[in-house]
Amino acid sequence: MIAYLEGKIIHKDSNSAIVQTNGLGYQVFLPAALHEKVEIGSDQTFFIYTKVREDELSLFGFANSEELNFFKQLISVNGVGPKTALEILSSDSNAVKNAIVQENTAFLSKIPGIGKKSAERIIVELKNKVQPSSHQEISSKLEQQLEEVTAALIGLGYQRGEIYHVLKAAPAEMTQTEDLITFFLKNI
After folding, report:
1. Which residue from 27, 61, 93, 150 has the highest number of Cβ atoms inside 10 Å of its Cβ?
2. Which residues of 140-152 are buried (b: 16+ CB within 10 A; e: fewer)?
């Protein structure tokens, strides 16, 4: 089993990158936020989850072991496969953890590939297993603002991962929906 990869990025697709190491190229599927950071020609390291099926070997890469562990928790939920878990991780993982702890099915249902029943199942199975970082907890009001901003920007054709990537850099005092949308559009 491949658990860690270090190498040079030689190609990027829409949701994966090819990592060259010791003359071999490995296709590694990445969460959107990490995929955006990775540049062709750069040296990268990834914590890897290896999925083996009868007809396929897939590698899923993460920036750190905490993301990898959350990914493993997500795929342990019945009905959540690796591709769906990657989509979930394309959102802000702390916001997802908060939604699980606060039993916010509406937030989880907005993630592509997650319906109401899947959101409820994720909450039931992971509520007592996940802990959002205490210094990064998002208040309910701010979480609602981020949901509104994300929904508006997705409506304009932007991807969830790039939205969260840009909005992470927004000043903490910026809490108005219009201000956050303006910040995103200026910084994309």
Report:
1. 61
2. eeebebbbebbeb
